[in-house]
Write a structure and sequence with these properties.
heterodimer, A: alpha/beta, Rossmann fold, four-stranded antiparallel sheet, 10 strands, globular, B: mainly alpha, ABC transporter involved in vitamin B12 uptake, BtuC, binds magnesium ion
């Protein structure tokens, strides 16, 4: 396996709180990797460090063999990491199409070819029919899709998805799962997803990392991780595996 | 180029645009001097409103000190003309460069150190005030007692030296307004325009899509400052006098932004529609007050305040998007 993303002993402290505590893991190129853990475990913070929103207090991150920790979010995107936001951040006054177009313009300076690419991405995320609507009029599930579409339009090598299934109905979750699987299969897109919906994690991820109070308490194949006593006690014990 | 500019404009919109342009081109033949003077003010407001719109309407950066660029541009070209006999069209180059450099300094200080929103607006006011106080003591350009361009009776229009009758100034201002309009239209349809809108809508999301927000905000302020300086050159040669108390005053900055706010921030036609409405209504009110032999100090300001209130309450997006929607002229944001 070739490693696409290598996270090495990364930590992040918010005043007194150690939100991410010496976390290390590696993601193989072309794989789907999930991070799970209870609320406040530090998943989004870890994500923000990888995406450049926060500089880590310690540790290092390498993407495709190059150090990226400490780079700005836009530099990291240009290196080939796309991200979504757990609390969605569409460009509300712009149309759905223009939202995605702006992502597509990163690697296509000509508006016409950027628009063609945006259309392809919109079709893949099943938003094509709503492309002329202002993003502010979308329902939550569609906004989650728009987050994915916009990030995807930047042609990332690694896609970071922060709870894109949250708030989706089971049928919608299944659609998203199959969309992500197609992206992974058709383009060899590597995906790092944070997810509470265990059904999606079990269906998608080859490997799972479990965070608890900022620390990695378990890592492995999904079925092994859910049987790990430490995981059952700290996390899954409270919530049923659906 | 032309094809690209007209791209995406519905036929009906195109017809209205052509009609408007024809009316504006023909205006000097039918209008008397008074109407022509009012039209010059309308176009001047539309132009400066469009320049300001680049920053606030497109890129979402609120400047409340845009008078600084008018002043710098006006003083630069006027000083070059008076002291060295440099023609205004050459002085314009220096005027734009100085104002753009000033914009770059303000932008660098603000955007590099993460000053945004209200704090950025206050910074722009502070710079305009510095300039006002500085020019009050700047003897080379007359300090607080004002700077004057030589006025003589011109037998013919001298376009190269911008000396002539109102009709000439009218066409100059019309050309500038059309140019500003065309530039903004092209920019909005290109990558830079989309990136500006992304920054305006959500800067964090914009960065996550690979947009170097610092760079694009710098482009916006430098372009906006340079465009505004051109209006300053016009102002100096049209009115033939410059007083720091007047050109740099915050009320000038505020007047500049009322047009686009009332017409529709971030839209192409907003500044023009707003300028037409505000100037037209305020002239009408002036006529009314004169006819009634009333002399109310500050009536104009109160009137502007009321207009703003009505629009903000009834049409928060501005008059133009509402009108355009009613007439089916364009999409929601053009
Ligand atoms: N910007 C911040 N400043 C201060 N504390 C923060 C900040 N961001 C997160 N935290 C804290 O860090 C801890 C980890 O938060 P984080 O958002 O990473 O959790 P999470 O695992 O994503 O949780 P959830 O499942 O609810 O999304 C929490 O205690 C949170 O309050
Ligand atoms: Mg989270």
């Amino acid at each position: 396996m070739t490693v696409l993303l290598a996270v090495e002993g990364v930590s992040k402290r918010f005043r007194g709180l150690l939100a991410v505590d010496g976390v290390s893991f590696q993601i193989a190129r072309g794989s789907i990797f999930a991070v799970i853990g209870p609320n406040g475990a530090g998943k989004t913070t870890l994500f923000n460090i990888i995406a450049g929103a926060f500089a880590p207090n310690g540790g290092s991150i390498a993407f495709g063999g190059e150090r990226i920790d400490g780079l700005t979010p836009d530099e990291i995107c240009r290196r080939g990491i796309g991200r979504t936001f757990q609390v969605v951040r569409p460009f509300p006054a712009l149309s759905v199409e223009d939202n995605v177009l702006i992502g597509a313009m990163l690697r296509r300076h000509d508006p016409a070819s950027a628009r063609r690419h945006a259309h392809e991405v919109l079709a893949r995320l099943e938003l094509f029919g709503k492309r002329h609507q202002p993003a502010s009029t979308l329902t939550l599930p569609d906004r989650k899709r728009l987050e994915v579409a916009r990030a995807l339009a930047t042609d990332p090598k690694l896609l970071l998805l922060d709870e894109v299934m949250a708030g989706l109905r089971p049928a919608e979750t299944d659609r998203m799962v199959s969309i992500l699987r197609e992206l992974n299969r058709d383009f060899g897109l590597t995906i790092l997803l944070i997810e509470h919906v265990m059904r999606a994690v079990m269906a998608l991820a080859a490997r799972v990392l479990v965070l608890h109070h900022g620390a990695a308490i378990s890592e492995g194949a999904p079925d092994a991780v859910v049987r790990d006593p430490a995981v059952v006690q700290s996390y899954l014990g409270a919530e049923a595996v659906d | 180029m032309i094809a690209r500019m007209l791209d995406g404009v519905p036929g009906r919109g195109l017809a209205v645009l052509a009609g408007l342009l024809a009316v504006l081109l023909a205006a000097p033949w039918v209008a008397n001097d008074y109407v022509l003077t009012v039209l010059i003010i309308v176009l001047y407001s539309a132009y400066t409103g469009q320049a300001w719109n680049v920053m606030m309407g497109f890129a979402g950066q609120l400047s409340l000190g845009h008078a600084i660029y008018v002043g710098l541009g006006g003083y630069a070209a006027a000083a070059l003309y008076v002291h060295f006999g440099v023609a205004p069209w050459l002085g314009l180059v220096a005027a734009v460069a100085i104002a753009a450099a000033c914009g770059a300094v303000i932008g660098f200080l603000a955007f590099r150190f993460g000053v945004g929103g209200v704090y950025f607006a206050i910074l722009t006011i502070a710079f305009a005030e510095f300039a006002r106080i500085g020019f009050d003591h700047f003897r080379w350009v007359g300090a607080s007692s004002g700077f004057f361009l030589p006025v003589a009776n011109y037998t013919r229009n001298d376009l190269w030296n911008l000396r002539g009758d109102p009709t000439m100034f009218y066409y100059v201002m019309l050309a500038l307004t059309v140019a500003a309009f065309a530039i903004c239209h092209v920019l909005l349809k290109s990558r830079i325009g989309y990136y500006w809108q992304a920054i305006r809508e959500d800067e964090v999301a914009a960065r996550s899509l690979g947009i170097d927000t610092f760079r694009y905000k710098m482009y916006a302020i430098v372009l906006s400052a340079g465009m505004t300086a051109v209006a300053g050159v016009f102002f100096a040669f049209y009115y033939n006098n410059l007083f720091p108390e007047q050109v740099f005053h915050i009320s000038r900055s505020i007047e500049m932004i009322l047009g686009p706010i009332i017409g529709g921030i971030g839209t192409l036609f907003g500044p023009l529609v707003g300028a037409l409405l505000l100037t037209g209504l305020s002239e009408a009110m002036q006529e009314l007050l004169t006819a009634l032999r009333l002399d109310v100090p500050g009536a104009k300001q109160v009137f502007y305040g009321l207009c703003l209130l009505v629009v903000v309450m009834a049409l928060p997006g501005g008059v133009w998007p509402w009108v355009a929607g009613k007439l089916g002229l364009t999409g929601p944001r053009s």
